[in-house]
Design goal:
This protein is α+β, with helices and mostly antiparallel strands and 461 residues long. It contains nine helices and 18 strands.
Length: 461
């Protein structure tokens, strides 16, 4: 609970810091350009009188009033309601702006004006105040990491200690992760490696291992360019030998979804179109292993009536495989839709409606909710636990390592089942995060959508 509260405080202070920067620009305009205006009657805020304490105090009071009023004006324009922000600090951005005022209940309306006034008063403190407070909070957060660092005992002078204190984990974690995963994935007993963040906001490496035949240290040692050692915690999750990370289609056949043969399923993803082509051609994006049989290399796909919203319940082909490709970052296929069948296929996900766009997750995104609707699992929801997962995925004919996958965990384990490959994964606002490619009993692996569309030169239709 305490660590969760610390993260919320950092989120809140960050928001107030950004708002205070805007407030300062507004206040500077009033102080420098309108201080002599007869209309506003602000009074002189620029001329200093160091020899006259009374005039200096009066000038300071005028500046304070300007800062507070500018803070309230800024908060009012942005509808920055501190009370609402506190109640939604993990997604504070959604509370800003007047567009969502229609969703306010009576309690929200009653507290709106007090909340805006409070925000205005707080951001009038100035960006330096909030910047310094953020710096202190991050130093406290960093100190927790340092106190658990086994390398701390090797430090023998104050300069080295200062160097370690002033080096934040976020400064080196990506380089350390790239080095660590290249080493760990060479081990036969390691099935997956992910970069994760604990409740205190500190990064660690999670390894999925079949067994512990080889010793794995609880900390991974990483050397900075100047030779300063840094330690990253390593958490090992043992998985049963029969629990495999498998590509989530039951049959690598040409059938995407056939209600009469539920043993042969994969899931259609969503409809895309070329970035620059002004024509009407549309494609269904799904996984390559759904549509290309390793032996027959089937060229036709058959219709799904679920998560593309097809009204055509027949089993007539709806298109041809335009492209099917698998590499270390993606396993994707484009199905060129037959124009005569296009009217019966549209981007609508059961329980989730139409995708609103695409979203690229960054390091700042934490505990992002994820939702999917697969041919087998139906509607499921979970949480994104890593943006950089690597996994050895078992296909019907081989084991293939994929990198930089999103890892998602449901409330009771994996969100997806066999047959869900290719289904679209969205966030709470129906923004597409990616498509399902594989999973085991606990984790679903998802290909991030931005890299797929960029490589294929496609966009959401």
């Amino acid at each position: 609970m305490q660590t969760d509260m610390a993260e919320k405080i950092i989120q809140l202070v960050t928001i107030l810091f950004l708002l205070s920067m805007i407030c300062e620009r507004v206040a500077d305009f009033f102080k420098h350009y309108l201080c002599g205006s007869e209309f506003f009657k602000i009074g002189d805020t620029i001329t200093k009188t160091p020899g006259n304490d009374i005039k200096e105090q009066a000038r300071a009071y005028r500046i304070l009033k300007i800062n507070v009023w500018c803070g309230i004006i800024t908060a009012s324009i942005l509808k920055a309601d501190l009370i609402k922000i506190l109640n939604n600090v993990q997604d504070a951005g959604s509370t800003l702006g007047w567009a969502n005022i229609t969703s306010y209940n009576l309690r929200d309306v009653l507290f709106l004006i007090p909340g805006i006034v409070l925000t205005g008063c707080f951001i009038s403190f100035g960006s330096k105040f909030w910047h310094d407070l953020l710096d202190i909070l991050y130093q406290i957060k960093n100190a927790k990491r340092i106190l658990t660092d086994p390398n701390l005992s090797q430090i023998d002078n104050i300069k080295s200690l200062e160097k370690v204190i002033n080096t934040y984990q976020s400064d080196f974690i990506k380089g350390a992760y790239l080095q660590a995963k290249s080493e760990f994935m060479l081990r036969d007993n390691i099935r997956a490696v992910s970069l994760k963040m604990n409740e205190s906001g500190l990064y660690y490496f999670e390894l999925k291992a079949r067994d512990l035949n080889t010793q794995i240290d609880p900390f991974y040692n990483y050397l900075l360019q100047d030779g300063t050692p840094q330690s990253i915690p390593v958490k090992v999750v043992l998985t049963p030998g029969e629990d495999r990370i498998i590509a989530h289609s039951i049959d690598l056949s040409s059938i995407i979804f056939e209600s009469l043969s539920p043993s042969k399923v994969g899931t259609l993803g969503f409809i895309v179109k070329p970035e620059s082509d002004p024509g009407d051609q549309r494609y269904i994006l799904t996984c390559a292993h759904n549509v290309v049989h390793p032996v027959t290399n089937a060229k036709f796909v058959k219709p799904g009536t679920r998560n593309v919203g097809s009204s055509d319940a027949s089993l007539n082909p709806i298109g041809k495989i335009f492209l099917a490709e698998r590499d270390h970052e993606m396993d994707v296929a484009l199905i060129e839709i037959d124009p005569t069948k296009a009217d019966g296929i549209f981007n609508s996900i059961p329980e989730l409606s139409e995708p609103a766009g695409i979203r690229t997750l960054t390091d700042q995104d934490k505990n992002v909710k994820a939702f999917l609707y697969g041919a087998e699992s139906n509607y499921q929801e979970g949480t994104v636990t890593s943006l950089t997962g690597d996994a050895k995925i078992e296909y019907s004919t081989d084991v293939f390592q994929m990198i930089n996958l999103l890892t998602i965990e449901g409330k009771a384990g994996a969100m997806s089942k066999l047959g869900d490959s290719g289904c679209v994964v969205v966030d709470e606002k129906n923004m597409i995060l990616g498509i399902v490619v594989a999973g085991d009993s606990k984790v679903t692996y998802v290909i991030p959508i931005e890299k797929v569309l960029k490589k294929l030169k496609m966009q959401l239709a």
